[in-house]
Design brief:
The structure holds two protein chains of two kinds. By secondary structure, chain A is mainly alpha-helical. Chain A is built from eleven helices and no strands. Chain B folds into two domains: about 210 residues, Rossmann fold (3-Layer(aba) Sandwich); about 80 residues, Alpha-Beta Plaits (2-Layer Sandwich). Chain B starts with 5 loop residues before the first strand and ends with a helix. The chains are: A mainly alpha, B alpha/beta.
Chain lengths: ~260, ~300
């Protein structure tokens, strides 16, 4: 099977996604960086000075991993959903559909393009963290693995919604009503230990909480949930998302009439 | 029987209750220049899109040079180049990259195709725009780019869906010359067009589709000779009160007192007997015009039935 793969086709798709990101750099790369700097300066420094240490670090330092996760989630979902939808809307995706590219290569191409964007943003925000509050991951392997796993999950969701959407507005439904609220209450700005007990229980049903909790551990060495649980849950959801995205592409859902 | 460049067998495509393609069977030989004609909505583009897998078949089979588009889809797709009617370029890429990336999707690395991409861009007069995005091109330039992109991976079967729609006469003739060259070099070409003179000038074989069904499929010459016959107009040197009584002139149209005789629906082999009948009646022919059917006549006759 691997010998039959169209690796050139796959890498071309990845490159194409990277080119697309760089062509709209002012829309997709700089805004998360600028937003993060503002969060750190306005919330982290001004408000954070009045907050005691959390998980053994300053509030501003505590914010950095949460903000990286926030932007990685938004970027990977946005990359795949808008690229797939735009390709469908303008029919440019037909260039790929008529080529000898399998559904697996199709999904992998969009997802790896999105993963590259996620790592680029994570590195840039990480640099902001180093320069502003000297925040550095204590466990690089965990940091990289979590970003990768979370990227897989939200890229596959991006493909699914990019295929289902009938207009650009539909793509925003998940971002506006699910991803953003759940991310904000998922521990970007506040540790779960500060939440009242009933809300803390509710957090266990919030997938964003698992992603942020696992990633923050790579910085602080502490987490609310056991690592196997958070990484396992994200991994399970990512595999489920990938399987659904692959199946939709394989049957040509809204791609082939 | 040799392997066909394209073999479509009992293709059916339904959209709910609508039958867009109804049991279409076609065979295109290697090296052919094949015209696929039909009125708007007849099923041409649906059939073509089924060949390139943009349309999911309801039933039937399609193979390209012996490779089934379902079971051996990688090999089948690698052999086909499609120049679609609607522009569907990648808006984020330059002209050169549009070709290089398209080749990449077909498994050809940039190094292997860069020179070919530049040569195609030059061949189509687009070199001055090579680093521009396609949105900066004129309509005619976009048409040329569509063709260049379809050719970048050197397909053995080239499908042109309305390749000259909306282009001026000069470019149309230029594109005709180019596709003729390609066909002479061995590329099998399937052409759909609304310009029937285009199909008449270029295609060796033609199929006509109407309401999803093939209503004619034959060599262009035989379609012209048999499907709709010619009109013969004869002017004799003096007005006639009545036509001579001769079997060859049965059905001829003539106004009493007029010198013009008109015979519709005859073929060239009947001309001699008509002239013989007039000669036998002592009439001298001063003018003769044999108007052969155009593909347009054939097309209208077949698609209006």
């Amino acid at each position: 099977m691997i010998a039959d793969m169209n690796f050139v086709g796959l890498t071309t798709l990845v490159k194409r996604e990277m080119v697309r990101s760089l062509k709209v750099i002012n829309q997709v790369i700089w805004p998360p960086i600028i937003t993060t700097v503002l969060y750190v300066v306005v919330i982290g420094f001004s408000l954070g000075g009045k907050i005691a240490k959390i998980q053994g670090v300053s509030y501003a330092e505590f914010l950095i991993p949460g903000l990286i996760m926030l932007q990685v989630i938004a970027a990977t979902y946005d990359e795949c959903s808008s690229s797939v939808f735009q390709g469908r809307f303008l029919n440019a995706i037909q260039e790929v559909l008529i080529a000898p590219i399998s559904p697996f290569e199709f999904v992998a191409g969009f997802i790896f393009g999105s993963v590259v964007r996620a790592f680029l943003i994570a590195v840039l925000i990480g640099i902001v963290g180093v320069l502003t509050v000297h925040a550095v991951p204590q466990n690089w392997l965990l940091a990289i693995f979590t970003i990768f796993e979370v990227s897989l999950l939200f890229s596959s969701l991006g493909i699914i919604f990019g295929l289902m959407a009938e207009k650009f507005d539909h793509i925003a439904i998940l971002t506006t009503f699910v991803i953003t609220p759940l991310t904000f209450v998922g521990g970007v700005f506040t540790p779960a230990t500060l939440l009242p007990v009933p809300l803390r229980t509710l957090e266990l049903f919030n997938p964003m909480f698992y992603t942020i909790d696992a990633f923050r551990r790579s910085y602080t060495g502490e987490s609310f949930l056991p690592l196997w649980l958070s990484l396992g849950a994200i991994g399970f959801l990512a595999l489920l998302g990938l399987a659904i995205a692959w199946r939709m592409v394989a049957i040509g859902y809204k791609l082939r009439t | 029987m040799s392997i066909a460049a394209l073999e479509i067998s009992h293709l059916v495509k339904r959209y709910g209750d609508l039958v867009a393609v109804d049991d279409v069977t076609l065979r295109v030989e290697p090296g052919d220049f094949f015209g696929f004609l039909g009125p708007n909505g007849a099923g041409k583009t649906t059939t073509i899109n089924a060949v390139v897998s943009l349309v999911k078949k309801t039933s039937g089979s399609i193979s390209v040079f012996g490779h089934d588009v379902d079971h051996d889809w990688r090999a089948a797709r690698a052999l086909v180049g499609l120049a679609p009617q609607e522009y569907n370029f990648d808006r984020y890429l330059s002209l050169r990259d549009i070709l290089i990336y398209q080749a990449g999707y077909f498994g050809l690395p940039p190094k292997a195709v860069r020179a070919r991409a530049d040569a195609l861009i030059e061949r189509f007069g687009l070199t001055s725009k090579i680093n521009d995005e396609y949105m900066k091109l004129s309509g005619g330039m976009k048409r040329r780019l569509t063709l260049a992109r379809a050719l970048i991976h050197e397909p053995k079967l080239l499908i042109l869906d309305e390749p000259t729609a909306g282009v001026d006469v000069e470019l149309r003739l230029e594109l005709w010359d180019f596709v003729r060259e390609l066909n002479a070099a061995g590329t099998t070409i399937i052409l759909t067009t609304h310009y029937l003179e285009e199909a008449e000038a270029l295609c060796k074989n033609i199929a006509i589709i109407r309401e999803g069904k093939i209503v004619a499929s034959a060599p262009t010459k035989s379609l012209l000779n048999h499907e709709a016959e010619a009109t013969l107009v004869i002017v004799v040197d003096e007005p006639l009160r009545a036509l001579p009584d001769h079997p060859a002139l049965l059905g001829a149209f003539h106004t009493p007192g007029d010198a013009t005789i008109c015979l519709e629906g005859i073929n060239p082999s009947q001309i001699t007997s008509v002239l013989g009948a007039l000669d036998g009646a002592g009439l001298r022919v001063s003018e003769l015009e044999f108007k052969r059917s155009s593909l347009q006549d054939v097309f209208l006759e077949l698609t209006r039935r």
